[in-house]
Design goal:
The protein has 13 helices and three strands, in the order βββααααααααααααα. By secondary structure, the protein is mostly helical. It has four domains: 99 residues, Winged helix-like DNA-binding domain superfamily/Winged helix DNA-binding domain (Arc Repressor Mutant, subunit A); 43 residues; 49 residues, Arc Repressor Mutant, subunit A; 53 residues, Arc Repressor Mutant, subunit A. InterPro entries: RecX_HTH_1st, RecX_HTH_2nd, RecX_HTH_3rd, Regulatory_RecX, WH-like_DNA-bd_sf.
Length: 258
């Protein structure tokens, strides 16, 4: 059989034969089999071309996907499946990419942890959750986790949180806010608590009183429409306590306000 057409179509080439057969092949396939228009090929050669073209196309797709950023094996596998590459071809391509270190889930995990250690704000539990979602094995994640000390990351993150909220929240509420935020970011309670206690937070009585008076005014506008006297005072006390103010500060503020 003879090649009657060999035409470039975006990233692939259309190869047509005189027996009304056609297939899409990669440039690598053309080079590998030295294909050109009018060349005669056998049925056996055609099968080899088809097999090689499919593998070459799948590998090129994977490398294209990897060219934007590092990815896990699971992400690349899903990408190939989305492009309707058959499972056996995917397996062959994945093995090749792993051998050539284009895909390395352990190195990927270590890079994520290193980046977080230098400038991130996530704890090990959240990192593990995100990596598992990307298909990385728990074994790799646990191995890399043991290589890093997250106390420095927790301390850095707690300092940023303190700077953000120190003028907005009373001491108890500030402690709860920082601790809970660290836990939500994937740090253990013990690490979060330790990070908070390492902070050098200065909140004087005047600042606390200013905060509570502003909050009291807001809550008074809310409750004074429905309550008065003792009931109003109780409602205000409960509302301020929920905001994290100490009862001694609440009593002082209420005496000045009411």
């Amino acid at each position: 059989m003879k090649i009657t057409k060999l035409e470039k179509k975006k990233r692939l080439y259309l190869l047509e034969l005189d027996q009304a057969q056609s297939l899409y092949i990669t440039e690598d396939t053309i080079v590998r089999f030295m294909l050109s228009r009018d060349k005669e090929i056998s049925q056996e050669e055609l099968k080899e071309i088809q097999t090689y073209a499919q593998l070459s196309h799948a590998k090129n797709l994977a490398l294209y996907h990897l060219s934007f950023k590092a990815r896990t094996g699971c992400e690349v596998r899903d990408y190939l499946a989305k492009h309707e590459i058959d499972e056996s071809t995917i397996e062959t391509v994945m093995n090749t990419l792993k051998e050539d270190k284009w895909i390395d889930d352990l190195a990927y995990t270590r890079a994520i942890f290193q980046s977080n250690h230098l400038s991130g704000d996530k704890g090990p539990y959240l990192l593990k959750q995100k990596l598992i979602q990307k298909g990385v094995s728990s074994h790799y994640i646990d191995q890399v986790t043991s290589e890093f000390d997250f106390s420095e990351v927790a301390q850095r993150t707690s300092q940023k949180l303190a700077k953000q909220y120190v003028k907005k929240l009373p001491p108890r509420a500030l402690k709860d806010k920082i601790t809970q935020t660290l836990i939500n970011k994937g740090f253990s309670y013990e690490v979060a608590k330790h990070a908070y206690h390492q902070l050098d937070i200065e909140q004087d009585e005047e600042q606390t009183l200013d905060l509570i008076m502003k909050e009291l005014e807001k809550q008074h506008q809310k409750y004074s429409r429905k309550y008065e006297g003792y009931e109003l005072k109780q409602r205000l006390t409960q509302a301020l306590a929920r905001k994290g103010y100490d009862y001694s500060d609440i009593s002082t503020a209420l005496r000045e306000f009411l």
